Amino acid sequence: MIFAAERIRELLDDPDLLSADVQAQARRNRLEGVGALEAPRGTLFHHYRVKPGGIITWVNLLIATGQNNLAMNAAVAAIARRFVRGASLSEGMLNRVEAGIRAFDPCLSCSTHAAGRMPLAVELRGPDGALLDAVTRA
Length: 138
Prior knowledge:
Layout: H1 2-12, H2 15-18, E1 32-39, E2 42-50, E3 56-62, H3 64-83, H4 91-104, H5 108-111, E4 120-125, E5 131-137
Antiparallel strand pairs: 1-2, 2-3, 4-5
């Protein structure tokens, strides 16, 4: 870590890196753009359209939660089949549901501003749709 800090200090003072020849000037050069970014949650695809003045007029984001939704639903269904017995839900089952969701979207709680918490509400319904049990975690 010390070497890295010392090397950064050297690079910050390097006149070649501070030269106007290598500094990029960012400007809008297209009215529409598409990008992809690999992030801890998964791949983020983003698509933007702007007016000539630079005002964004349209955005389409494909985020990891949407891409992983089918897998998360399948995981929760498998957990329910394995750990729900009778007409009641347990805290342990709720923990497994949380783990199943986090396996596909580990950053979901932070991205939804829950800051380290994973608020959940699970309902158990009978074949007729009647509510048999419910467990929540704030």
